[in-house]
Amino acid sequence: MITYAGPMVLGFLLGFIMGSRIKLNPESELKYDASVYLIFLIVAFIVAYLLGPFPYYQDFPLADGFVAAAVGIIVGKLLLGRDRGPQELED
């Protein structure tokens, strides 16, 4: 079984960049709980299964790049996408 790293790396990088751009709007009252990430991953796996592998790739029945992009979005959101709020000034 051969795995191709190209689509997975590119998908993760693009997902990480998109995830880092997600910012919370304090007026919208949206919360990103663990259930949101779980539902997002489940839907991403379903879509990746329906997309199927890239033509001529027969390693997994999933679209590897799509799953990697979904994971990249979550990682980018968790690492760089958080609004840290205003910093208190020290006197």
TrEMBL record:
The chain crosses the membrane at residues 6-24, 36-56, 62-80. The keyword Membrane applies. Keywords: Membrane, Transmembrane, Transmembrane helix. It comes from the Archaea. This is Energy-converting hydrogenase B subunit J.
